[in-house]
Amino acid sequence: MRLEEYWGVGPKTRETLVEELGRERAIRAIESGDVRALADAGLARGRATRILRRATGGDGMETLATSDARSAYKELLDLAVEHAVTQRAADRIRVLTPLVSRAAMERRLEDVLAARDAWRDLPEDDRESVLSAYDRYDERDGSELAAVEAAIALLEAGVDSGPFAAIADLERDRLEAAAEALAALEGNRGRVAGGADGELDRLRDALGAVEDMDANALELIEQLRSGGVRDVDQFREAFEDHLLGETNVTIDRVRDAMATDATDATDFVGATLRTLRSDLTAAIDEREETVAAELEAALEESRETVDRAVEAVDEIALHLSLARFALAYDCTRPTFVDGDEAAVSVIEARNLSLSTRDAEDVQPITYALGDHDVTDVPGGLEPGSEDEDGPGVPGRERVAVLTGANSGGKTTLLETLCQVVLLATMGLPVPAERAEVTPVDSLVFHRRHASFNAGVLESTLRSVVPPLSSDGRTLMLVDEFEAITEPGSAADLLHGLVTLTVDRDALGVFVTHLADDLEPLPPEARVDGIFAEGLNPDLELLVDYQPRFDTVGRSTPEFIVSRLVANATDRGERVGFETLAEAVGNEVVQRTLADARWNE
């Protein structure tokens, strides 16, 4: 395959990859999703990631039909990367894409959930041991030695189920022998590390001592003379004793190195030390070659175990990282709904973006579209109840129009549904007590954009309509479509989008303030509402974020005006806000303020 056939690889990128990696290695790096290899070759990490997403999951990336869907996808990856145990695992998370095969989704879910359960059950000390091993793995750029040490740490921690099973049957003795050999050989460019062989260490120490003597030969001669030597024989004997005492060299090696034709003491000492240096260097090379051969042989005996450890540790790092992400957000297994049925339903779902901000009192949400299994809503109604104050039980409609107060959580609900569907289709657990998801071929997520011109309208329609017009199942999550054109036209266009969504058997939630202008909706669509309930003693808006099904949500201008009246310090401003209070209903405003004071 030609490199240019991969998405994002043009002539300049191809030239860079071939020059740095070679064609075959570059192709292997792309096919295996190796971000680091491409980045080391000179590509920006972000560009390398985009190329690999398309190369390894191009069909899945086509699911993300809008720029907002792609942004939500990247936001989820960023959250997951925060829990990566290695840089390599972080890179692999960044190239995860939505999957197109239900079987692939289930396989990844099984691995991640098994890793989650195994990690959750580990004692804290064992977790720290494993994480420390992976820290060393990262510091050594994923070397074989670091991988083997990480495998040993995992075995010591006793994790042997799910994806950890890959290391459960590795022989501990072989791993330890391999770690010893690798520690002696790895990263030393053909040299044997210190501590691997006692004789080699002795010879190296001796050579170092001789080199120090040679560098200070004149001082050594003066030292020997000051010891009271009177003739050549005594000087020779004193020099020999000094060498034996300071270098740990054998007497035979010392005597063989002694110069026999020196003209004076300086020549004698210098020639002897040069000969001794040469002899020791040759002995070191010979011994090092022998020890290296023995270590290579020992390593070869464990080669299969090492290769399996390297592969397993890298794969475990990915699943362990995703498991830590799932635990951090209390994620659970979604149920997939296939066939003619279609559903997106969540019980007690939480928005991950809110969770990362440590938001207090985040209210979980229950919501459902299509052929769901949601039969109860926390604090809601029993089926068939006529009480209109509760959220009720969601019907089986596949399309909903969501209405309600500003700051009522409508956009957050869309984001939450988008997150749940994206995580499920990537084969990952979701932030909900329970969730049912129909994998979709196109995810149309459209956030509210406060740009009011024909160009924005046209580009928006070009992004949201084609997925509905093509084959495959589509999920529409559209927020305040009316923000990009005038209200009258917006109502007509939005009614058309809802109708098209129904006609194409798609799933969809449309957030709008124009519900009354959309009547009559197709019978297959319903209207849901979110309600504000008043002000708290701090004059902050109190909102029940749980949608009430088959109920139009009402706006809350009286609550906002009440707060403005209460907070006005300038008399003129207060008079102005009181005029607005008359417009929205002064009695309601006063009652709201009284309720807020009463609750104080």
Description:
The protein is an alpha/beta fold and 600 residues long. It folds into 3 domains: 1-97, no CATH class; 99-328, no CATH class; 335-555, P-loop containing nucleotide triphosphate hydrolases (Rossmann fold), CATH 3.40.50.300. Helix content is 56%, strand content 10%. The protein has helices spanning 11-21, 23-31, 35-40, 45-61, 67-81, 87-94, 102-121, 124-139, 144-157, 165-168, 172-185, 198-215, 217-225, 232-247, 251-257, 265-301, 303-328, 352-356, 410-425, 454-469, 487-503, 557-567, 571-584, 586-598; strands at 335-336, 343-349, 365-370, 399-404, 434-437, 442-446, 474-479, 507-511, 525-535, 541-548. It has a 6-stranded mixed beta sheet with strand order 6-7-8-4-9-10, sandwiched between helices. A 4-stranded mixed beta sheet has the order 1-5-2-3, with helices on one face. Strand 6 (442-446), helix 20 and strand 7 form a beta-alpha-beta unit. Helix 1 (11-21) packs across helix 2, helix 9 crosses helix 17 (303-328) and helix 12 (198-215) runs antiparallel to helix 16 (265-301). The radius of gyration is 37 Å and the shape is elongated. It starts with 10 loop residues before the first helix and ends with a helix. The mean pLDDT is 84.
